[in-house]
Fold this sequence. Notes:
Elements: H1 3-10, E1 14-22, E2 26-31, H2 33-43, E3 49-53, E4 61-68, E5 74-81, E6 84-92, H3 93-105, E7 116-117, H4 123-138, H5 140-149, H6 159-175, E8 180-182, H7 188-199, H8 216-226, E9 230-235, E10 242-248, H9 249-261, E11 266-268
Antiparallel strand pairs: 1-2, 1-3, 3-4, 4-5, 5-6, 6-7, 8-10, 9-10, 9-11
Helix pairs in contact: 2-3, 4-5, 4-6, 4-9
Amino acid sequence: xxxxxxxxxxxxxxxxxxxxxxxxxxxxxxxxxxxxxxxxxxxxxxxxxxxxxxxxxxxxxxxxxxxxxxxxxxxxxxxxxxxxxxxxxxxxxxxxxxxxxxxxxxxxxxxxxxxxxxxxxxxxxxxxxxxxxxxxxxxxxxxxxxxxxxxxxxxxxxxxxxxxxxxxxxxxxxxxxxxxxxxxxxxxxxxxxxxxxxxxxxxxxxxxxxxxxxxxxxxxxxxxxxxxxxxxxxxxxxxxxxxxxxxxxxxxxxxxxxxxxxxxxxxxxxxx
Length: 272
């Protein structure tokens, strides 16, 4: 380790040779507090995962990954060691942060008795989830043509390629009127016009007026407060725009499950 790198890591706690990847960040070089920040973003529902890649294998480990646990505020931690995946389930955020910090700062792994071999969603399972979601959102015929046009990843590790496919799905929905896209600073009248366009042909009662003066999330919350079996949902496509769609509550539940398999996010529109 050169003097410059030593100073960056030991004095400034910046790790330029490590790579941190998440739903909202993907590059080499980060300050150690980024681990807690990205775990907090997972807890808030903004981020779906955090991955750490060392410059070289540590005790055979080439990747440490955190995804959301079964209970809010917990995470599942997985380690890729010698090509096999091992995991610790339902860690508190604080515990996961300690383990991930130790991996980066001290080059250590948790004791072997703490983790066991686990099954991650395979590329076939992810492809099945993506196709099922597309069919639900676009219809079978359009999905068939769409999937022929979009190259789906063949390996689970190709999360960048899944991000591209996810973005293409959002674009396809917008182009065929199944979703609308709104900028952060959308005016109220433009939001109302987009909602009317999205709800056309549906037996939905639209708000007579919106009380909040500003903000797409606030207006979405007002809309959802009036609907019972239907929901205005949002699809996170990695941009600052709001991609909105209308789903039944059952469709919303299934969409969230499919999205989670792909490490992507569909949520209530006001939570975007």
